[in-house]
Amino acid sequence: MPLSIILSRALSALLTLFGVMVVVFVLVRVVPGDPISMMIAPGATDADIAALRAHYGLDLPIWQQFWVWFKQVLQGNLGTSISMKQGVITIIAQRLPATLELAIFALIMAVIWGGFIALVSTAWRGTWVERAIDNFNGIMLAVPDFIWALTFVLVLGVLVPVLPISGRSDPSIDAGLATQFYILEGLARAKFAFVWDVLKHMLLPACALAFPLAAVIGRVLKNTMMDVMVQDYITLARIKGLSSIRILLQEALRNAAVPALALTGVQFTFLIGGTVITERIFSYPGIGNLAIDAVINRDLPLIQGLVLTFGIIFIIVNMAVDALTVWLNPRLRHA
Amino acid sequence: MSPVIDIRNLSARSAVGPILRDVSLSVNAGEVMALVGESGAGKSTIAKAVLGILPAGIEVTGGNIFFEGTDLLALSPARLRDMLGVRIALIPQDPLTSLNPARRIGDQLTDGLRLRAGMNRKRAFDRAMSLLNDVHIREPERVLKRYPHELSGGMRQRVLIAQAFSLNPHVIIADEPTTALDVTVQKQVLRLIRDMQREHKTTLLFVTHDLGVVAQICDRMTVLYGGKVLEQGFTAQILKNPQSPYTRALLAASPRYDQPEQSLEPVPEALIAELQREISA
Q1: Would you say A153 and A282 are in contact if contact means Cβ atoms under 8 Å apart?
Q2: For A48-72, what is each residue's pLDDT tens digit?
Q3: Nearest CA distance, A141 vs chain B (angstrom)
Q4: Is B89 at the interface with chain A, CB within 8 A?
């Protein structure tokens, strides 16, 4: 890719981030609720409250507050959490790996499952298999992630308790890891029992997040596969005597994946948004769960830091999708 | 000598009505047979029936297609697939849509060599280079690394011709192989197909609506109208002395450089009405 395109992409990413900063900064200050009133002890005087307000810089006009925060962010400092009395970056760095591992695990499940149902219903198009998958997929598509989450908690956690429904790993296991990337580090250090336990904890929240995404991928990919399967080059591949499975995977899938990929990127950002409620339901210690705590506590620096983090993740996902699209579609490479 | 392709009393229909009516034709080894007719005459349907790729909704209602003594219509899809590519190949109509846009030329061209002839990648690519040489593509090693969109239409059709000949099939079906090309390129591609056919002694079933093309490369021709064979015989004889009034009208409708005034006569409507009555009888 030429340098000018990379530069313009980077510039537009920075502009997007700036927009996100402005919007979230203003929003958290105009919604009702006051962080100071959450922290004062009963019987505090007006002078105490004013002093506290001045301590956090909340007595300044809003544009000055923004300017102070903006300069901080540029220096790589997101401030101190009001409720947790720790640096916002430290807190997020502690929690982000849990969410990343969960979201990527869910994404992998959704891509495999969605791709599988798309391929199966393309291979058996026009038969009862396709209709059955379409109907099943409709249900998957209609139910949102948090309903799946609550259903899983009830059915697989309470009625038939087969899987853990809370936390990220069994607290009695001390794996002695240095990072919060439990799966990556656990695999690197060959602690497979621990990784297995973490995967079991991730399975239900990941399924809740993955099901709607899998349904979307399955539907879109199947539709584009159907379009591709009537192309001349597919007919010619058949006349070349290639096997059906090779035609499906080698000839059709890559061409059909391009439109499905763009949508998967958008939907994956929704999935990351979905971690907020899903992590809450499963008491999963990621940034989604943290975000809810931050909002309840009116922890303005933490909320701002979290939204900024989500913004950066969205931008990275979109860039990754762009890069993958170009890789899949050779016609875009020289454009 | 027994024919390589022997179509006997082939009939097919769609929901709308009959598409092929009792078509019989045979093609001898090493011969070029033209299937001539306007759109809807059924020439492409015959080609598709031989290749086993009739679209959904078109159904063969009778007849046989013998290929070297085997009835292709009676074969299981798996057995037919074993024959396709190796013994029967296709030069498609539209080179712009017949190559997979996401795969390199070399990978597509060597599919048959690797998967059907069992060559390893290195040998298949060596063979592909000499095939590209045969179809007069310069710098074949660079072309093999290209994607289809990086080649012109004529180049792509050459690649597809090389692919069709790659496993030395007994029969190649050419489905209007020059229709989608520029006029200047048409001539070169046509000559290339004829040269390749002579060199490999391949039997060629050539589907076209262009009598000029027929005159240039076909030994015999079959004229179709409305799914029915109107006339069949040696090209030179039919072009000189057409028996069917429809063939005469087709000839009159073909452009001629020497007599621009007289050419481009449309097929008379009275004749079309008569033909319609005849085939539906």
Answers
A1: yes
A2: 888 888 888 888 888 898 999 999 8
A3: 30
A4: yes
